[in-house]
């Protein structure tokens, strides 16, 4: 299995939007009250805009896009806006690969931040397992940080 996390271009936005929609809608299986996701998760214009601003990444496996990430770099802090993997590729280590690649792509980064919904047991467990520490929470989200 050869995986690569690469910058996505605007032509990738349609494919990544479809994967994002399927991935986030699958959260209904792990505690979401209904299908849905973060703002823009099923919007081609949103993903196109993220690509134009160099925030959109694609996870490639054997020439196919199997997942994606939206990453924001700001003053040596990397914010993982979201990562997503096509549901048929869940539990193959792709999320771990993406997070490790994101952490290593930016050697100048001192801190990595992200947030995830409180109700999502799957993602909260995932980020804790990867060494992210909870720094705060509100009624909806748990906020994590990891020093690099």
What does this structure look like?
By secondary structure, the protein is an alpha+beta fold. The protein has one domain: Gcn5-related N-acetyltransferase (GNAT) (Aminopeptidase, 3-Layer(aba) Sandwich). The chain is 29% helix and 34% strand. It is built from four helices and seven strands. It has helices spanning 13-25, 44-52, 94-105, 121-129, and strands at 3-7, 56-61, 64-74, 77-85, 111-117, 133-137, 141-147. The relative contact order is 0.16. The mean pLDDT is 94.
Strand-helix topology:
Elements: E1 3-7, H1 13-25, H2 44-52, E2 56-61, E3 64-74, E4 77-85, H3 94-105, E5 111-117, H4 121-129, E6 133-137, E7 141-147
Parallel strand pairs: 4-5
Antiparallel strand pairs: 1-2, 2-3, 3-4, 5-7, 6-7
Helix pairs in contact: 1-2
What share of residues is helical? 25-40%
According to CATH, the homologous superfamily is Gcn5-related N-acetyltransferase (GNAT)
Mean of residue pLDDT? 94
Query: Taking Cα atoms only, what radius of gyration do you get, to the nearest Å?
Result: 14 Å
Number of separate helices: 4
Sheet/helix structural class: alpha+beta
Our measurement of the CA-to-CA distance between the termini, rounded to an integer number of angstroms, reads 27 Å
Number of domains: 1
Percent in strands: 25-35%
Named CATH topology: Aminopeptidase
The main sheet orders its strands as 1-2-3-4-5-7-6
Helix-strand sequence: EHHEEEHEHEE
Mind telling me which CATH architecture this is? 3-Layer(aba) Sandwich
The dominant shape is globular
Instruction: Report the biggest beta sheet as strand number plus sense, adding barrel if it closes.
Output: 7 strands, mixed
Uncertain segments? none
Please identify the top-level CATH class.
Alpha Beta
Number of strands: 7
